[in-house]
Amino acid sequence: ATALARETGGEEYSEANLPKLMPWDVNFWNERLKEKTFELKEEELRPYFALDEVLKGMFGLIDRIFGIEVREASGEAEVWNKDVKFFKLFDKESNEHVASFYLDPYSRPADKRGGAWMADCRGKSEALDIDVPVAYLTCNGSPPVGDKPSLMTFREVETLFHETGHGLQHMLTKAKVGEVAGINGVEWDAVELPSQFMENWCYDKPTVYGFAKHYETGEVLPDEMFEKLKQQKTFGAGMMACRQLLFGMLDMELHSNYDPDSDETVFDVQRRMADIYTPYSKPVDEDRFLCGGTLFAQHGR
Q1: What is the pTM of this model?
Q2: Would you name the residues annotated as active-site residues?
């Protein structure tokens, strides 16, 4: 990535002006290197991933592996924006309504933060007489423009499957005690299991080819593109593994060996551990993101 930046990034990336890529440059140039290596850009894939088709394919997968039918029920529940959709989940054998969820799929920079997340609206609880859990699934995809539907990058497709995995853990729980129902009471190192389980289906050809079709022509995703997507999956995996090791080892160092009465600060510890695990991308002096959030806590992801 550094070599590519020096080759194509202009004078500001010359070794004289920038001896080493800054942390905020690394992901950008890794992405450019991935595009060059596989000759495939994210934007080339958008026409094959229209949101409505992706949802149909994902709901078909949920039906296939869980025996659960997802039905749109927009209009049956109050929503906070016209783009929000409401869905109900039914057990196919009994036709019992087992759960519901809201999907807020599009970016709204004026009043919605970035990223993607799942949150619980109502959790299953026998004590509170709540038998039908409800989830929020929030993404930040591109909204429809004119006659063009919402078209997703492959990464956005993965993210939708990922957050749906969290949602399914919440919605399909059999536990009746609220403290351990759904996403509650799960060990930190295991909370990403259902999301990763669902995300991995994005590399299952029968699943992907159930929805990956050009929104204008109906042409299915070319095999060559799908093969490149699979090859890209492990691109940069070594650096990601080092990053996760840093999170985990920093966590253990702070909780096992750190002496708060010593002259060493927690940020000194962070830099010391980064020297070991991510020497190519060490924290800048102004960095105060030591811990917090799922990326740190779930260092098994």
Answers
A1: 0.85
A2: 163
